[in-house]
What does this fold into?
Amino acid sequence: MRAPNKSKLVRRSIPSHELLRKLAVAVIVLWSLSLFFSCSHAATITIVNLDGAGEGFNDPTPAAPVGGNPGTTVGAQRLYVFQYAAKRWGSILPSSVEILVDANFDPLDCDGSSAVLGSAGPNTLHSDFPGAAHPMTWYHQALANRLAGEDLDPTTSDIAAQFNSDIGKPDCFPAPWYYGVDGHEGTALELLPVVFHELGHGLGFSTSTIAGVEEVFPHIYDYFLFDDTQGMHWPDMTEPQRVASSQNCSKLVWDGLAVSLEGPRRLGPKPLLRVNSPATIAGDMEVGLPSFGPGLSSTPVTGDLVLVNDGVAPPNNGCEPFVNAAAVAGHVALIDRGGCTFVTKVKSAQLAGAVAVVVADSVPGCPALGMGGVDPSITIPAVRITTDDGARLKGALLLGPVSVSMFKDPALKAGCDASNRVLVFTPTPYQTGSSVSHWDMSASPDLLMEPALNTSLSQDPDLTVEQFADVGWFSPTVTGVGGPLPPRALLTGYPNPTATGASIVYSLPRAQESVELGVYDAGGRLVARLAEAHATEGRHVLHWDGRDLAGRLVPAGVYHYRLRSAAFQQGNTVVVVR
It folds into this structure.
């Protein structure tokens, strides 16, 4: 995790209340946390101290108790924070198997302006164990143990975690660690949310699948990664398709039911730039917001765009007094990034009479999150857009007026796509250990499992609990099963329950002359026909879009899908929510 000067940005080094308030279905879905807590005891998470004498958890440097942490040495305070975070996660997650976390403090990469704060991930992965929802699928060891009801590898700790002991030193990141557990860190770096976050990676919030590397099995995390552009989940993609998806800015979402229901409730209105006209480019653009100025509200600021000209090459970066100030007055100024600070650009536009500012990035990439700087005299709103979106606006300006509005849209959620499914982190270029295994940084309020540690975070697990529900942490434990699961041609569909359709998977040991796959309602009536043809040996994936034979969305309820051939007949169910 890496922290730059602006707040506390964290880069993760390796992939490392009530759950659902209500379900809009006519069936009972047994996913309530209170239900599982009533029949499953809390997990025991134990910190295994790997530090040597006089270092890390054993650092004898005297320290006064702080923020609810009673430790009287630096080492004792560090250990207290880790045990506090472990107990917090343990109280949330049900498991009969002790979870061991190997942990230590060591000097990690850092300089005067940024630092690797820490990293964590599973020590081992498991597949095809009793209780696994999907065969030929990797699970983090702690989750696999919980589902199997036994320790699948008793010789190995479940999670490995490492944190930077050099934080606060002059040649490292200047802000020190804060060891309190009250969230009152001030300008220091609070250790608790960093530990809480990293344990989240080790417990199941990450994938072992690395884009560009051919994998033997998908990870359970992958089943809930849906690419809006390709219309596919990760396990169904080719390796080149996954590479493209891992860098598909603001287009890769998590579509598990628990997160999809809770995400829109937790997240706030989405800031955006809406192009009103011309129709050829009308639509919404992702934006970053500045640390200065009045910000955006639900009331749109609307105006025609005017590309600024400061008369000095490059003429559109707004670093000199505008030669077209009269044209800018009363309109929205479009300015290129570079050459001077964001504050300088926006203040120059304000002095020219602009009602708002749009800053277009000068380097290709995903939507940028913000604009740094301080100037209390700035009174007009500003947003930052990508290079590609800036080019679209400039191209349209060559043909005529372009009307835009900037505001926070309460119908859309910050950190979600147009269907309000929560986005995962897909920067360009790909960041090993960070990409895909985090929520997108556009989420607001900030989420624990973003690749950024912000002052608003401390020990709220927020959507991490719902993500854990989706991957299986709160599924019933399978016990007393001696040996591998029985072989099946028809595998578990996903996501299930679903609001957007489901991918149905079947695997054939040999080719079949005729295979039929249909979806039926509770009364046994055929709803959808997905396959009726010759099928080759191997794995097949068919997507049901949740519609009936007439193309209508089916109502909420339980649906049965059935696979038939001359050699066998197998069935399963999927729950549809609306």
DSSP finds ten helices and 28 strands in the chain. The radius of gyration is 26 Å. The CA atoms of residues 363 and 387 lie 6 Å apart.
